[in-house]
Amino acid sequence: MKPILECQGLTKKYGNIYALSNLSLTLERGQIVGLLGLNGSGKTTLIKLINGLITSTAGQVLINGMLPGADTKKLVSYLPERSYLNDHMKVEEILSYFSDFYENFNVVHARAMLSDLDIDTHARLRTLSKGTKEKVQLVLVMSRDAELFILDEPIGGVDPAARDYILQTILTNYNENATILLSTHLITDIENMLDRVLFIQKGQLVLNATVDEIRTAKRESVDSLFREVFKC
Amino acid sequence: MPWDLDNNRPIYLQLMERIQQDIIAGVYSPGSKLPSVRDLALEASVNPNTMQKALSELERSGLVYSQRTSGRFITEDKTMLKKIKRNLASEHIRQFFEKMTLLGYNREEILELIQEALKEE
């Protein structure tokens, strides 16, 4: 089986600035991977390249051996940092929209999660709080039978109780052939759930190791290593 | 309720210790079946792969064994369980002595303090 994600010499330049510079990375299936780095380090650029939303200056991204395109969008379920959903739509309408759009969308699953989170599916999105909107989006993204989940800051805006539910949801739904790549600043909250962490600094991959490798070698948590590496 | 884990020590080691502790304390009895990797991972709020690693290590030590299709079981080897219990006890005692020594007590004084404490109980 081909790796679910491969980046080869990936470079993205905006004018004279390198957002990503010669980044190479291979992710195998069945892992939960944390993408960590300061603001502006290139996390979202990498995520957008994987999703084919921008094109690289040099190098390439392969998803299951394929360049980003219509075929890879079936495999990738993506939670962007900003909402793209229409505020005037009801949750119910969005559910049918997703059912039409993605053949691997599991609407039964989505309804069950929405009801666990006490979200009224007849409400219009604009009437929901920021945190609730984020929950709706995450439910939609996690309800797809995808092979690569890419979550850009999935738990940033939600309260700690919902955060626990969401993390449990990720663990429950996680299947052995899928890989989850998630970017976050809330390292401590998710550290125990991760297999592997990637540190990105100034567009370059500076660390790619498992959480327990870090703890064994450095005798400290990923969170405190992060604070050390990225000290201002 | 997620398991209480330290931030600076490898997660799989802590999971091993916790399961070992539970076996010794009788939460799981000798010969009984352990919950599945996924259920244990959910209970502990950890990555299933990490739980898998902890269980494989416990298997290597002989404390648990797996049966092809039916899952993982606790050993029925009473001698081994006794030995592990004894090792854990020695470790607790070692740590206790270390702390008391840091406070400046010598061996005799420590023994006296223990005897006093036992009388008070």
UniProtKB/TrEMBL annotation, chain A:
Domain ABC transporter: 5-227
Family annotation (SMART domains): AAA
GO MF terms, alphabetically ordered: ATP binding; ATP hydrolysis activity
Keyword annotations from UniProtKB, A to Z: ATP-binding, Nucleotide-binding, Transport
Descriptive protein name: ABC-2 type transport system ATP-binding protein
Automatic annotation (TrEMBL), chain B:
Domain HTH gntR-type: 9-77
UniProt entry keywords in alphabetical sequence: DNA-binding, Transcription, Transcription regulation
InterPro entries tied to this protein: Tscrpt_reg_HTH_GntR (IPR000524), WH-like_DNA-bd_sf (IPR036388), WH_DNA-bd_sf (IPR036390)
Coiled-coil stretches noted in the UniProt entry, renumbered to this chain: none
Annotated transmembrane regions: none
Gene Ontology terms, MF aspect: DNA binding; DNA-binding transcription factor activity
SUPFAM superfamilies registered for this protein in UniProt: Winged helix' DNA-binding domain
Matching PANTHER family: GNTR-FAMILY TRANSCRIPTIONAL REGULATOR, HTH-TYPE TRANSCRIPTIONAL REPRESSOR YTRA
Name of this protein: DNA-binding transcriptional regulator YhcF (GntR family)
